[in-house]
Amino acid sequence: MTNYQIINVETLKSLLDQKKINLIDVREVYEYEEHHIQEAVNIPLSVLSEHTDQLNKDGHYYIICRSGNRSGQACQYLSDLGIKTTNVDGGMLDWEAL
């Protein structure tokens, strides 16, 4: 069972248009450098555990990857640590199709 929220890219776009949100892109650096959402901070899933001290436990983080798989893993990991997360289902593949 998941203990995080899930949204689609249309909802993410709407949120980004309305306010500043904490968006983390968990793809590898080379993927992020090829194309990313301007507001996204790159913390690859492979090194996420080394960066959790930078995350505010009172904050809420939206997590995106290529398709939604790695971001789902990141959401599960972070929510297990007590950090509120939302997975962007469809990821950058759906984002680029907007």
From TrEMBL:
Residues 17-97 form the Rhodanese domain. PROSITE patterns: RHODANESE_3. It comes from the Bacteria. Transmembrane segments: none annotated. InterPro entries: GlpE_sulfurtransferase, Rhodanese-like_dom, Rhodanese-like_dom_sf. CDD domains: RHOD. Pfam families: Rhodanese. PANTHER family: FAD-DEPENDENT OXIDOREDUCTASE (PTHR43031), SULFURTRANSFERASE YTWF-RELATED (PTHR43031:SF17). This is Rhodanese domain-containing protein. It comes from Macrococcus epidermidis.
